[in-house]
From TrEMBL:
<keyword id="KW-0614">Plasmid</keyword>
<dbReference type="InterPro" id="IPR051783">
    <property type="entry name" value="NAD(P)-dependent_oxidoreduct"/>
</dbReference>
<dbReference type="InterPro" id="IPR036291">
    <property type="entry name" value="NAD(P)-bd_dom_sf"/>
</dbReference>
<feature type="domain" description="NAD-dependent epimerase/dehydratase">
    <location>
        <begin position="3"/>
        <end position="232"/>
    </location>
</feature>
<dbReference type="Pfam" id="PF01370">
    <property type="entry name" value="Epimerase"/>
</dbReference>
<dbReference type="InterPro" id="IPR001509">
    <property type="entry name" value="Epimerase_deHydtase"/>
</dbReference>
<protein>
    <submittedName>
        <fullName>NAD(P)-dependent oxidoreductase</fullName>
    </submittedName>
</protein>
Length: 305
């Protein structure tokens, strides 16, 4: 098949392109000008440097590639995870405008299938339960997080509601593994080693992770799967109060101390408290049934005490 991947040199984009090429697909990857172009060429993919914010350039890039499938893996993440909330408005704009350009071009040019990267960690579910695919994103989240979920939720609705193409929404968990923040040599591990991490409040928020290679496998399967929404998360959703100490032991870092919500609000932000006290884990049952998804056990789950 001919496949167009936007965000083709990101944490999931590049291994996805590599997997697609290994399977014999013809891939065009959209990336910023710079070293990403050579990274795509060395795995045998064509490179497009169209600016996601340039509607005509995106249209022309997709027209030139004439793909059967378009995959939106666009993200705008900072090098330092401490800046995630500060950078979130840029990421939100990228999804709203860049993703809008990508989707409009796919519809106009008669692309058969459109796959969207969404968030499996901002889902709204009752406390103590895992969110399934009927769950909506947390539109009530504070600040830039809420703005992000509302934009991505609207994007999901456009993709799933299209009558011009088959839409698939992949709601990934927090990525971990090679090229991500969550690995022994990653930015989060460095934060832990420097004593810059803390468990806020009761740490009762439940996080769902997914290994980057498992996310790639699910995305490859989605190319021919039944349209719809899939939660692409592992089998080990854990509360912050459990996964953070376990992760610390896994990367040989000190176990993070506790911090009250009041202190966190003063030192950090309302969004930080939200991440530690209100997130809900997700169920991967549909992905297992429809995508043949077989996620590995969370690599630091055995360090939970």
């Amino acid at each position: 098949m001919k496949i167009f991947v936007a965000g083709a040199t990101g944490a999931v984009g590049l291994p996805l392109v590599r997997a697609l090429r290994t399977l014999g697909h013809e891939v065009t990857g959209m990336t910023r000008r710079g070293p990403g172009v050579d990274r795509l060429r060395e795995v045998g993919a064509s490179a497009s440097t169209a600016d996601a914010f340039d509607r005509q350039a995106v249209h022309d890039a997709i027209a030139g590639a004439a793909p059967d499938v378009v995959i939106d893996q666009l993200t705008w993440l900072p090098a330092d995870p401490a800046d995630i909330i500060k950078s979130m408005p840029n990421d939100t704009r990228l999804h709203q405008e860049g993703g809008g350009n990508l989707f409009a071009a796919a519809e106009e040019l008669g692309v058969g299938r459109y796959i969207l990267q969404s968030r499996g960690f901002f889902l709204d579910a009752p406390s103590g339960r895992l969110a399934d695919e009927t769950a909506r994103l947390r539109y009530d989240a504070p600040g830039p997080v809420g703005e992000s979920t509302r934009v991505i939720g609207a994007y999901e609705d456009r993709v799933l509601g299209s009558t011009a193409l088959q839409g698939i929404v992949l709601r990934y968990g927090f990525f971990y593994g090679p090229g991500t923040w969550y690995r022994p040599g990653g930015a989060i591990a460095e934060q832990f080693r420097k004593g810059e991490a803390a468990i806020i409040g009761d740490g009762a928020a439940v996080w769902s992770f997914v290994h980057i290679d498992d996310a790639v496998a699910a995305t490859v399967a989605a190319i021919t799967a039944e349209p719809g929404t899939y939660n692409v998360v592992d089998d080990d959703p854990l509360p912050v109060s459990e996964w953070m100490p376990a992760f610390a032991r896994w990367v040989d870092a000190p176990v993070p101390p506790r911090m009250s919500e009041a202190d966190a609000l003063a030192a950090a932000s309302e969004e930080a408290v939200f991440y530690h006290t209100r997130l809900t884990g997700a169920s991967n049952a549909r992905a297992k049934a429809k995508l043949g998804f077989k996620p590995r056990r969370l690599l630091w789950a055995d360090s939970v005490r």
